[in-house]
Amino acid sequence: xxxxxxxxxxxxxxxxxxxxxxxxxxxxxxxxxALPIISSCAAHFMEKYGSWDKADSSLAKEQAVVYVTGGGSxxxxxxxxxxxxxxxxVSRDLKDSEIQALGGPVAHVFARDAVAIAxxxxxxxxxxxxxxxxxxxxxxxxxxxxxxSQIDGRLPAKAVVLLTRDASGGVTEIFQERVMKQQRLAAxxxxxxxxxALIKKLETxxxxxxxxxxxxxxxxxxxxxxxxDGVMPTQENIVNGKYSLNRPMLIVARPSPPRRAQLFIDYxxxxxxxxxxxxxxxxxxxxxx
Amino acid sequence: xxxxxxxxxxxxxxxxxxLTGAVLLLALVVGYIFWESRIPPSSDVSLAxxxxxxxxxxxxQPHRLGIGHAWMATxxxxxxxxxxxxxxxxxxxxFMAEVAPPAARAVxxxxxxxxxxxxxxxxxxVGCATLVPLMELWLPTGETVLCAALVLALMVLPxxxxxxxxxxxxxARELRLAGLALGVSRWYAFxxxxxxxxxxxxxxxxILGTGRGLGETLAVLMLSGNSPVVxxxxxxxxxxxxxxxxxxxxxxxxxxxxxxxLFSAGLLLMVSVIAINALVGQLKRRLLGAGQN
Lengths: 289, 293
Fold this sequence. Notes:
The complex is a heterodimer of chains A (289) and B (293).
Chain A: H1 2-18, E1 25-30, H2 35-49, H3 52-55, E2 65-71, H4 73-82, E3 87-90, H5 96-101, E4 106-120, H6 124-128, E5 131-132, H7 134-141, H8 148-151, E6 161-165, H9 170-180, E7 190-192, H10 195-204, E8 208-213, H11 214-217, E9 223-228, H12 235-239, E10 246-253, H13 259-269, H14 273-278, E11 282-283, H15 284-287
Parallel strand pairs in A: 1-2, 1-3, 5-9, 6-7, 6-8
Antiparallel strand pairs in A: 3-10, 4-8, 4-9, 4-10, 4-11
Chain B: H1 2-36, H2 47-53, E1 56-57, E2 64-65, H3 68-99, H4 102-117, H5 120-135, H6 145-170, H7 173-181, H8 186-215, H9 218-223, H10 241-248, H11 257-292
Antiparallel strand pairs in B: 1-2
Helix pairs in contact in B: 1-11, 3-6, 3-8, 3-10, 4-6, 5-6, 6-8, 7-8, 8-11, 10-11
């Protein structure tokens, strides 16, 4: 599904460009990790309101159109600066230089993306291991420790199977940045086109270990997650930031955004939080009391 | 009468437009891939590194853009698949052309066509559901080069078998009958006359199967592990060129180094397939020439 979305992207970008001047539309773009959430939110938004006057009676009766494109977090900021988009999607904290360049932008965290270390419950590690340190994880996922006996001396010398999402899927980015740092992921890892495919493999292969979106493994009884540096990836620890493998997902606007953009931000922070959860990310507003 | 000729003219013009359109579209695809390819993809990647030595790690720091692992996996998987399929396909061809009674042929021919028409994702799925768990009884993962090659062999089999059957039946009857009239055994007539005469056609079939195997994406992606590693053995994992492109293109920004690397990989694949098709054309002509005399 995600692949379909990414293939459809250039088409959407072209379509977006050709109606550039159309009144009554807002353009949202940036992080590809946030893309599926926001595309779905935009579809719901347009379906719910239909025209702008239904969302806010002070607006003209024009068809409500929200264009959503990818481009990466960098584009989410740059596009906002040069006016290509009205709202930027950024899956990391804003840099000071960016905040300055945008003249104090309005940035809202609408979700958190966390990476959990997971195996199935029959994995040898499930019996002996409760937590990993960051260094241990780097050694495992770079292929330096490729036998269970090297991770824990009590275990047999069976080969460890590493599962990852393909290419630069959102979780891979954080994992590279916070855990692997300068090291490279082992080339022998199995790459999966979707989180669902990865989880299915993880459930059936007793030698497999993966880093995967925390929300996606949350309710799965066949899988277990591990603490990283002593902290479990619970909703609470993710929201308050104790669990280190997480990042905010931001929706950013220039200072004092136009009414239409503000309406969409409100929608993303409100009704759309259900979609955030559905897609396996951690809804931020809903988690707060 | 005039209306008929008008319809004729319209049909002729229409066909011409359609043909021109199709050829132009093909030229556009080929041209576009050439245009978007850079070999090597960026100034900090050497030609040898790109084609042979570097690993594929576009997100690491600094990035590495080597496709050596991918074409090695492609060669290994396709080579193994064709090697496995060919003997079986020739046997099927002999059976259909020489031995089978019409009733058996009436069943076998459509069956082969169905085998050729099954979508790749179904092969991939069936492989994932059957072969992978079976191999996992012995191996850490069932996704291996061997697993991909076994399923790919099944996928190219109907192409080779159909061509083999066709070229056996094209061998002139008189030649065979003349051979048999001299009192040689059926096997001798087959191996010394039919097989020799049909050889170019057989080779064309094998090459056709190879071309089909090279382009296959989904099944090999699902069954090879899609691991960007040089396959170290038949039970190792790999990532064929097609799988590499399918996996990474969606994530690479337009006109980035990674994008150029993937298009160059596509160019390599396209050139191989075109070369193979040209070779098939050559052999077909020779086969037809041989069939006439």
